[in-house]
Structures are given as structure tokens and as C-alpha cells.
Amino acid sequence: MTVLRRGLSYREFPDGSHLDGSGYTIHHGDGIPFTFELLMRPYAFLQTGDEVADIMGRAWRFDGPWDWTAFDGEPAGAGPAWPLALPTRAGKPCSVEDAEAAAASTAGGSHLEMVRDWMALTEASPTP
């Protein structure tokens, strides 16, 4: 696993330190204890490959919190407009529970607010 210091989303080039340009490497089997604390998981109710529809009628593919593809071929712009509907998961109709979780989780706020909340916690910005 590779991690970056708070405030960094990526590192384009090594900075003269012992780092190789990607960050600090943690080897989970080396016996050195470490702990992670989850502060935020954007779009925890979605899975990679989910297809959603936004309030504006645009259909989107979710490939990660900051990786949205609109099916209409237009640029993603500010991302999907909330609330979101989740019609399919893994190419099949999703369960009622999953659809309700997506709708409830996006009933208030916006994609931009989620990005801002994440940036406030990490002191970083989504990778370009």
C-alpha cells in the first residue's frame, strides 16, 4: 500500500527524498504495526461500475468518487446533480435497498459539497 502525506493527492516527480515519487510504502506483512482511521468515504453507497441517473436526467457511470463518466458524451463538468437514482449495479437492476440508500444519501447537498468536505479533511484536491 502506498500513502501520501496529508495535503498531497499525488506526486508527479521524486522530491530528492527517499521517496520514489509515489509516496510512502507500507508493507502490511512486515510486522510493523499501523492503524488507519476512516475519516470519510465519499459515495460509500456506490460500487465501481454503478450506473446512476441524476436529477437533471443525465446518466453516469461511477468509477470512483472523482471519476464520473456521463453517458451523453458531454464533459463531466461539476459532476452529477443530486439527488441520484441508482437503477443498475453490475449491469443488473439494483436492489430496492441499494436504490433507497443512494437516494437517501444524496437527498441533500451536492457533489461539489462532497468534494469540498473531502478537501477540508485531506488538505488536498482530487487528482487531475
In short:
The chain is of the alpha+beta class and 128 residues long.
Topology:
Layout (H helix, E strand, L loop, with lengths): L1 E2 L20 E2 L25 E4 L4 E4 L5 E3 L13 E6 L2 E2 L2 H10 L5 H12 L6
Antiparallel strand pairs: 1-2, 3-4, 3-6, 4-5, 6-7
Question: Would you write up a description of this structure?
Answer:
There is one protein chain. This protein has 128 residues and is an alpha+beta fold. A hairpin with a 2-residue loop joins strand 6 and strand 7. The chain is globular. The protein has two helices and seven strands. The relative contact order is 0.18. The strands form two sheets. It has a five-stranded antiparallel beta sheet.
Measured on Cα atoms, how large is the radius of gyration? 17 Å
User: Could you tell me the strand content as a percent range?
Assistant: 15-25%
Low-confidence stretches: none
Helix content: 10-25%
Number of helices: 2
The secondary-structure element order is: EEEEEEEHH
> What is the SS-derived class?
alpha+beta
Mean pLDDT: 86
Query: Looking at the structure, what is the overall shape?
Result: globular
How are the strands of the biggest sheet laid out side by side?
A: 5-4-3-6-7
Tally of extended strands?
7
Distance between the termini: 21 Å
Main beta-sheet strand count, sense and barrel state:
5 strands, antiparallel
